[in-house]
Amino acid sequence: MISLGTERAPLNTDLRHDWSRDEIRHIYWLPVPELIFQAQLAHRAFHRPEQVQLCRLLSIKTGGCPEDCAYCSQSAHYEAGVGREPLMNIADVLAAARSAKNEGATRFCMGAAWRQVADGNDFDRVLEMVRGVAALHLEVCCTLGMLTASQAQRLKEAGLTAYNHNLDTSPEFYGRIITTRSYEDRLRTIAHVRHAGITVCCGGIVGMGESDEDRIGLLEQLSGLDPHPESVPINMLVRNEGTPLASAEELDPLVLVRAIATARILMPASRVRLAAGRRSLSQEAVTLCFLAGANSIFTGQKLLTTPNPGAEEDQRMLETLGLKAVELA
Ligand code: SF4
Asked: pLDDT tens, 170-221?
């Protein structure tokens, strides 16, 4: 049992999928030092605290997406200055994966700006990319939009480790961010991924104008998935010019820290990834995110289409903090 007040009970490492909104709210609003202490206990029960997994996320098909996600510069609904590029060729993707591996990444994620995967030539090429990245002994993740059960099965057979499909925010706030597909659509794709035996990467974004209660609602949804997503990316909004959220109010990084720490306590065995938005954070804020239980970052100059610290800069940061990149098994 996690202590919800100032008294501290011994940590029970059983995973729970029935956290109530009240319990989550109580954890989220703990005094920050207590919250971080509890998150550290949870973290250390399941993970080596000095280890951080480096991931690389490559946009393999950019722009022109028919969805209207209000944060996204790749949506065809907005003039965000991101051009349309067709699906990359396989050799270029595999070259990028090799380069990511040489720079210390152990997970390679491929993102395509599609509403859903269409069977045919493009999907066959993605399957070939998955086989090629898996042959490099990297964890392979894809984010391609909605999937059918049979497509999930084919990705599994090609060697896919994980499929990313974020819930983004609470069910209550979701309609303010995306109108072209429903929360239920997302949950259905996640169910197909799980059913195919692929691990689930599912998280959300903070800083979109949602309330604390919405962040708590998102965490309730994520921690209610059984099993928990093995990977929980928590993104800080990147306010992309030309998107409806370009002028969203800047979020206090401590809110991100609260969200990460709460995710760590609710889903202690999962890898919690400090994902987009690091460019807007000070090194001190990033350090607090690690203290709160984040144990993965995305490296490389670009995260899909948004700027991100480069591999060398991250290497220096890890050295400064005495953290170590997870190595290939
Ligand atoms: S987030 Fe994904 S689904 Fe939404 S508009 Fe961007 S590329 Fe399309």
From this structure: 999 999 999 999 999 999 999 999 999 999 999 999 999 999 999 999 999 9
Tell me how crowded residue 173 is: count the other CB atoms within 10 A of its CB. Answer: 18
Phi (first) and psi of residue 42, to 5 degrees:
-65, -40
For the question of whether the overall pTM of this predicted structure is more than 0.85, the answer is: yes
273 CA from centroid of ligand 1 (Å): 19
Task: Count Cβ atoms within 10 A of the Cβ of residue 296 and give its class: 0-12 exposed, 13-18 middle, 19 or more buried.
Answer: buried
Confidence of residue 305 (pLDDT cuts 50, 70, 90): confident
| CB of 75 sitting under 6 A from ligand 1 | yes
Residue of 107, 154, 264, 273 marked catalytic: 273
141 is catalytic: yes
Q: Which residue, among 132, 138, 148, 140, has the nearest Cα to 164 in the 3D structure? A: 140
Q: How close is the Cα of 327 to the center of ligand 1, in Å?
A: 31
